[in-house]
Amino acid sequence: MEELMLVDDPQFERILECVFGVQAHETRVYFQVLELQGSTVSELAGALDRDRSNVQRSLSTLCDVNLVHRERRLLEGGGSVYQYFSVPVPEAQTLLHGAVDEWAETVHERIDEFGT
């Protein structure tokens, strides 16, 4: 959050990175999933021109912060594949507001505790 406070006009992508502690490449994956809802790791790797393992790690991080979720789809010939879905931007905004509010509340508590 400290980095974010030093920027006069932060972009939405930078806010996502700072608030959720994700990297720029993970933010790019979020926006790619947003465009290609229901895509697989392979499809995303192709669209992003990145290695599948890198995309998989990014998706795992995004799932951890609730910006992306996955659903298992059974294949006709057997086996399964995971499809990824990102939360819509309004929901991401709500998550961001909640995280910032929680952080601000903690800061206010520390301020109030100072000197007691």
TrEMBL record:
The protein's name is Putative DNA binding protein
Question: Which InterPro entries does the annotation name?
Answer: Tscrpt_reg_TrmB_N, WH-like_DNA-bd_sf, WH_DNA-bd_sf
Signal peptide residues on this chain, from the entry's feature table: none
Per its UniProt record, what Gene3D superfamilies does this chain match?
A: Winged helix-like DNA-binding domain superfamily/Winged helix DNA-binding domain
Per its UniProt entry, which superkingdom is the organism in? Answer: Archaea
Per UniProt, residues of the Transcription regulator TrmB N-terminal domain are: 16-73
